[in-house]
Amino acid sequence: MNKQTYNKRLMSNMSVNGQNHLVIDGVDTVDIVNKYGTPVNVYDISLIKQKISAFKEAFKNYENKTQVAYASKAFSSLALYEMLAKEDVSLDVVSGGELFLALKAGFPKERIHFHGNNKSYEELEAAISEQIGCIVIDNFYEIGMIKELTDKCDTKVDVLIRVTPGVEAHTHEYITTGQADSKFGFDLTSGQVETAIKQIKSIERINMIGLHAHIGSQIFEVDGYQVVIEKLISKAKEWKNAYNFDLDVLNVGGGFGIRYTDEDAPLPLEEYAKAIMSAVRKHAELNDMELPEIWIEPGRSIVGEAGTSLYTIGTQKTIPSIRKYVSVDGGMADNIRPALYQAEYTGVLANRVNEEEEEKVSIAGKACESGDMLIWDITLPQPDQNDILAVFSTGAYGYSMASNYNRLPRPAVVFVENGKDFLAIRRETVQDYLKLENSIENWK
Questions:
Q1: Which of 265, 319, 368, 440 is an active site residue?
Q2: What is the mean pLDDT of the chain?
């Protein structure tokens, strides 16, 4: 296979140097491995900033305010939150842990939105006492807790209602969250939203500013967004007449698709934005309503393609006429997505990028599970022990879903930008396990 065809695998932020090594934003990945070891997750910060700028640019012609809120469940760290705070984006957190880290990073409180289908009393108390920007209410139980806490803290809070609109995105069933049968939000078709609106309108310290809906993830078309916008705006008109409900904010969630392999064909970000803005304008006009603010919550589409996982190749096993397994020193403990979602990835040998591809192999993880397979079929130069495998587009839901299964330490996270590297999260060690452990000898 010639060089030009092979390099089509590389992401837009990558190049190959004279040593035939993979380079990410000016940093040689072999140097990263020599410095920090493997497995290691590498994030191109320049690309993250480019994605944020692209979203802002895509919505700049909208006639009302817009907010880009990074969905930090995709990946969070102290250093990332510090960087995002300077990029003038908002932040979507889904737990007390993410909220704690965001506050420690000095992220502006007024730009934090708190999501979650089972927020605890303590989590809500932290959010309300810190006077964060918005809470996205997910259920009736939460309404009662927020009422109690706003009274206790003697403060008001802005909220959105999360609506389950009955719109299914064309995606994997485990990452589709907009259909009626979902653990998230108030069901639109059964009248739950109306009941929630009436309850909230009766509570003085809860200020209901709008609606939220999220229809899924890794979406490659705009139809779902258009349908849910039509539904929510037409319903908002009814609720305006019935309950004096004002749709000041319409949050259409995230889910914008990215490229994992050549089979993926995500739309340009401006196409998603154009469709969303056009649908809001159209249906606001049809219902004689003011244009609401548009909020979006991209996570994967901001950090996904910016992340690359580097592994060291270890053992190999050939089953004649069936398959060749090539094992690496990571796997499902640092990237559960292939096992959980049947997610597909591609990559290269980072230390031998442009060598001729000779062999189809399957990349096996280190965990003691037959299902720990990172890539089932990939053609590479004949791999050798201690080669470095780079797996692309691992920036979303890799480290954030990592575990210590088999007592495997979580990997290091390294940021790169303009030829410089920075250790954002150090590698766990086996000594770290002892921080939470007690010897039975201490049991008296």
A1: 368
A2: 94
